[in-house]
Amino acid sequence: MVPASAYLFLSALLFTLGVIGVLIRRNALIIFMSIELMLNSVNLAFVTFARQHGSIEGQVVVFFVLVVAAVEVVVGLALVVEIFRWRETVNIDDVDLLRG
Amino acid sequence: MGLAPYMLLWPLAGWLICGLAGGRLAGRAAGMVASSAVGASFLTALLLLLGHIGTAPAQGAAGGLDPAPGLLVPLFSWLGAGDLWVEASLLVDPLSLVMALVVTGVGFLIHVYSIGYMAEDPNRSRYFAYLNLFIFSMLVLVMAGNLLVLFVGWEMVGLCSYLLIGFWFARPAAASAGRKAFVVNRIGDAAFLLGLFAIFTALGTLDIPAVREGAGGLPDGLRTAIALLLFAGATGKSAQIPLHVWLPDAMEGPTPVSALIHAATMVTAGVFLIARLDTLFLGSPVALTVIATVGALTAFYAATVALRQDDLKRVLAYSTISQLGYMFVAMGAMAAAVGIFHLVTHAFFKALLFLAAGSVMHAMHEVIDVRRLGGLGRQLRWTAGGFIVGALALAGVPPFAGFFSKDLVLEAAFALGLSSGNYVPYALGLLTAFVTAVYITRAVSLTFCGTPADPGAHPHESPPLMLWPMAVLALLSVAGGLLGAHLAGEPLLRFLESLAAAGAQADAPHPPASLLIGISVAVALLGVATGWRLHRGRREPALGVLGTFLEQRWYVDAAYEGLLLRPGRAAARWLAGTFDLGVIDGAVNGTGRIVAALGGQARRLQTGYARHYALGLLIGGVILMGYWILR
Amino acid sequence: MLSALIFLPLAGAACVLLLPREREEAIRWVGLASSGLTLLLGAALFAAFDPSFGGMQFTESAAWLPALGVGYSVGIDGISLLLVLLTVVIFPIALVGSWGSITQGVKAFTAAVLALECAVLGTFLSLDLILFYVFWEAVLIPMAFLIALWGGPNRRYAAIKFFLYTMAASVLMLVAIVSVHIVAAAQLGERTFALERLADVSLPPASQWWIFAAFAVAFAVKVPVWPLHTWLPDAHTEAPTAGSVVLAAILLKMGTYGFVRFAPVLTPDALVAAAPLIAGLAIVGIVYGAAVSWAQTDLKRLIAFSSVSHLGFVMLGIASLNLQGMQGGLIQMVSHGISTGALFLVVGVLYDRTHSRQISDYGGVAALMPRFAVVFTIVLLSSAALPGTNGFVGEFLVLLGAFRVSAWWGALGVLGVVGSAAYLLWAYQQVMHGPPRAKHPERLVDLSRRELLVFAPLVAAIFLIGLYPRPLLDRSEAAVGVTLARLQRPSVAAACTPPQAGLGLTALPKRCQP
Amino acid sequence: MRAPGGLPPITTPPVEIGLILPEVIVLATALVVLVADLWVGPRRRGWLVGLSLAGLAWAAWAALSASPGVGFSGMYVRDALTCAGDLLALGATALGLLVAPGYLKRHGLDRGEYYFLVMIAGTGAMLMAASRDLLMLFLSIETLSIPLYVLAAFRRGFARSQEAGMKYFLLSTFASAFLLYGIALLYGTTGTTRMPELGARLAELPWSASGSAGAALVTIGVGFKAALVPFHAWAPDVYDGAPIPSVAFMAVIAKVGAFLALVRIFPLTLGSTAGEWTLALGVVASMTMVVGNLAALLQSSYKRMLAYSSIAHAGYLLVGVATGTAQATSAVLTYLAVYVAMGTGAFAVAVAVEREGDEADRIEDYAGLAARAPLLAAATALFMVSLAGLPPTGGFVAKFGVFAAAVEGGGPGGLALALLGVLTSVISVYYYLRVVYVIYSVGEGDPPQGVRILPCRMLGVALAVAIAAVIQVGVLPATVTSFSGRVVELFR
Amino acid sequence: MEWGVFLIAAVVAIGGGVGVITSARPVHSALSLLAVLLSLAVTYLLLIAQFVAMLQVIIYAGAIVVLFLFVIMLLHARSGEPLHQKLPRQQPLALVFGGAFLAALLFGGLGAARPFAAPPEEFGTAQQVGAALFVEFLLPFELASVILLVGIVAAVVLASREAPGRRKEGR
Lengths: 100, 631, 514, 492, 171
Description:
Chain A is mainly alpha-helical. Chain A is 78% helix and 0% strand. The longest helix of chain A has 31 residues.
């Protein structure tokens, strides 16, 4: 049987990949996808722990994470579209009017 | 309370009237008010004296002029804090009465003289207000029953001196001179103040009778210390080395002021102080030696400087310093009564000399440089007469007043030599007597003899209002010696016998009086003759380097300027500029600048790139997790 | 009664704010009326005060922040009485004194001055440490306002420096206050910031030291004790006349008052131990202030540094920890308030006429303004501590007190007496004597009737205190005695429980152990 | 009824409406406003605000009268902290509503959705205070945050507003992921997400890396909302770019929610393992105070200066959380109450001033304000003085409470924090008083060009309320402190 | 067998993850994301979470990725990434601290791992999840509905075309 640590290892790895993606990519859409990656790795951790504890809570959480992720994607994409409409860029580094 | 407070009230009232009424007092009104105030004060003092003598037999054991012990007149309690309790009080005793009489008497004459002298000055009511304030302050000083009250008078006469020296403040020299006088006096006052603290710390009181009483019980070292501190105070007020420098400059004031304050009364306060606390000084041989030595040195120094001064008033000023030195020699020689006697006679003849000099200035439109005078004896007969009487008294020519007192001083100095082996004061005193005769003869010669330096000047004799006081003073200068002459029974000295110094003198070995008198007379006459020979016909023999040295007052003023004043001023500028603004304030502003710089750095962290922010979040998160896990 | 005294000016300020800003005359009179009423109330207080009792009188107290044991509690003793008296006298004078010079923003100006009076009175009358701190800090705001809005060309810098410097020093005091409170809570079993309750607390020596240091720094900056003085010249120089007057006359006394009021009660051992240090700094301040004054070219700066010197005397008196010294310090506080306040008014008179503070721009003014010259002379002599004026009484007692501790203290302190005469007379000569030098002599008109009225009470006070200081000394003596008696208290530090034991009311364990 | 699959029926438990009544009322009001907006004409949108305020008042009444208890399977708790959170959030929401209309109208943004979003965010903050479960907390945070993204980007077509929304959204979701992972780890360690049980089990365990890592990750997530350094970087840019009314609201509501959650998490849930986090929180608090105040020092933009100032205030608040005693917690609540008033007030002032038709965000734009709008100027000055923590304003009482609690309950570390706190407060005085100086400076050059003062009645009401609160707490603090003192009962 | 499935799923997931963050074109990233999501669904099945796996496929893979693709298409033209890096030090720092973070995460996460016990009956079924959702998680469930509503309103507000006063601004 595959132990919990294997799943958790995978989860941590995916989360880190997501983090690095957010940090090194400039395309807002890819950054969003990286964040989705992070959320999914969280889900994996929750499901793993649910299995470990034999409690259903961890699985239910996934549902809520899904909902939130969906809403965030909607809002985020709306923002990207809006910014693209005015600045014609999805490069997050170009969004740098505010500083100091 | 008796009459004593009224003596003070008169000039106080005069001051208030002249001061507040100000310009509304037309013509001579201010002078009249002021003079009558002082006159009233003099009469009160006289009444007090008579009363004092009158009550004496009832109290004293011996009859005649034996003085009553001092009468302490409390006025009001001034201040108190803990065990300090200062009662503003007056002390009526022979010493204070003698001083009060001199102050009010000479003061009255000079007030009257001033009416004439200042007739043209627009600010004369201010002048008379100051003058009355001075008389009041001086009376506070001499009548004080408490050392702190004495100190009040002490400082206030200094103030009046400042105000009067700088009376013509539009002249920078006058203003500076006044300030110099005040500040130099303050140095002495500071020492005086420390002396007071020491007295209070040791004795727990500042009442003069109690201090006189308790002084005997003090340990030697402490007594010496206190005595030296008080003497340091006295050197300031009485212009002794090293604090003498203010007095010559003080001649910038109106001449009657010089006569009253800087010759007759205020400058003698230091002498008075020592007489006042004679019991304290007597117990300290070290202090006495110092006093006698400083006095003698000052006397000699000032006399030599007076040899080469061109300003007639400055000559008189140095002469005053020199004569004050004599008084201190007497004090140091444990002959307080003699010192006071010389103080009194000096008050007469020096006031006379100054008034005469003032009369000259009045006649010559403020010219006082002897090189521009000459031959005035013919035009200004009365003035010249007065001056010459004063000069003879100063030179110590018998039978003028100065002869008696100066002789007694020298006698006392000789006695000091007998008892302690220290003949320096006597020797210097004798030498000074010679020099004195020389320089005053020179002054007379240059001013009144020979041909006028400025033929165009047409001097007119001063008005009677100025001459009469001079006449009275001349009379006193001639006859004043009787107060202390053996022939007349030494009334003043006996009156002052309560002074312990006078009593102590009795135990000392008696000097050969007649021999000493002879020497004195000889020296005085020799001096006059020398002076006449040297300066006859308004000649001024070249003395080369020595002459310059004397003209430059032994370079003392220059040394003060160069070694103290200028470096001090530079140090103050450095402190105010470089140190205060640069270092201390620089540290403060530097802190501010560092914080501001940090603020700028903190702003730079906010680059505007969201990815930087995310990285920052990650880094913070990693550190936080690391700490939390590995803790 | 005390609350009425404190808040009457504030009520006046509120009235002023309700008036339309165009009605400047009405605003001025309302301002004067409320500070005048405060003065009357203060005078009544002075009359009703019982000199024989050294404790607090007319006390009032109420809960304010009960959760923390903070109370509104005020009271007066002989020490605060003198300073309250000084305050109520100076403020109307400052107000009237600025009628001629403040023409813009009269409303805000008057309100700020009145608010300042409220805060100052509160500072002097608070018996609760937090209340004290509140008033102490509240003083800064209107004062900084006065400097920043009606000040000279460099006013912004000066105001910010004044504010930040004094505040930086006093926030540490707040922490110290809380620490005292915590020890007190452990020892007394109750939460309190009331001074009289805290008097029963013995702080352990180690914390006494740093608590004393925190208090001392806060007070020392305000005094200001050398070398924490550099805010003062800038603040004084840039402030408008009324601001300078109040700053010099009253605000500086808050620092010295703090030393007298709190250090002997809360940290007696540390105070005794630190007295030589304080005296040393005081002496340096005396001499340094005098020397630096002498080198100034700006009249207000000169007076500011003279304050450093004069306040050095106060600190020296306090550091002597004996009756004469402390009494002298108190009288010197009052005297300095009067004479330096008057000096700033004097400079204000000149500044109003020529708009220059530079000494070199003047000369020979005495001839043009004889009445002014008389006033200036009197004020100057008072500042130079001439006997017969108020300045002498204070300095004499201070120096006597210091001398009794150590002859050296006295000897060095006396240097200040010489120094003050030197620089004051020097300045006076430059400004008033010599030939007239002003560019526009016609502007130098003599004192107006209003200005004379402003100076009259100050001159009267100068002589009154100088010649008969007994009414003041008698009233403060008992309180000073009580204060000094605290220093004799045997040190109970050894018997003290360590501060860690049973702090706070919560059951939570201690955190953050090192 | 049985489903075809033969599954047992799901019996939903009774909804404990009494517990969540305040939240429900606000939510209902929000929905009513959203719907009513469709019928209300543009001129009568004032009614919407009135309606909302009525709803908020009703909710406040409900919060005060609701009885305490735990419900919804232990997900929700109504106690003193909840009640305090409700009132704080309702107050902030009410002020947030009042501040907006004038601005929205001027900039053509007057839409009912704005009020809806404000009230939803308010609900989120209320729920954050009431969450007894980490998942519930996560959802509450999202309920708070998502409306705020929109509010930040509400000025459509304006690059700065868009950028604010974008940055806020991006970083917030990033932080949310960390938070979630933290919740997952805590869940994995203890098998539960209910806070009290979780705290109890963590205390039983000797030490667990996963628990520590989880707690750290949760701290990142919540600390982000509270704008704690180093998770603060979004705040200056977002506050700078977002429309002023939004900023006035979000700066305050986010702090209310985040700090109530922090209080819930740290002293209340993890109180028994306090040694693990006091130092960490103390260091974070120090950094927050220092960076916030230093960066604010040299700002030339009023909004940006206030943004950094809000970071600094988060630092002061965190001092109270890190101390963790009942007294400190009570002080945090008092602080929040004062901050709601002065924070909103300070931003709200800027709503009334505009330069050339746009926001007047340079500090110089306020030069001479005192001459033109004395009341507005006085209000600004008061808020600045209060933010600086000077007596006799509420800001002083707030700071004093926190620092006193830190000295009292925090040992040497607490003393150090208090010292750092007071010293950074001194630094803050500089930039706050600079504003006051600019406002009151007379005769220094001409008034800035094109600056107009635009009074608005509702804004006036908001300012008046804020002023009253700041003065009230400053002069008679007992009213508020005794209320926040009720949290002591939570520690028994 | 289980290991085999897991390893395949894990490799695909990791590969997909790397693909997401390294693909030059957003479309490739989206497809990589899809691969991750699907392989995660497989691991959910291994973890006895059938319902969750179903949700994963339907909602995530079905809805969210489609949304991404839709937006990518909408913005297709200039959505590539410029070569010019404005933040040169970002990448190395991200890798370093990402690695450190991974270490911390592993150290913390793996510490929580315990051996799996036999799962309770009906574990992970839609029935059980649904029951929990409507009983235990009733309040969060209601709250989720609020969040969804907010999402809708947000989208409306942000995307509505009636925005007035539109103009570009900047410094």
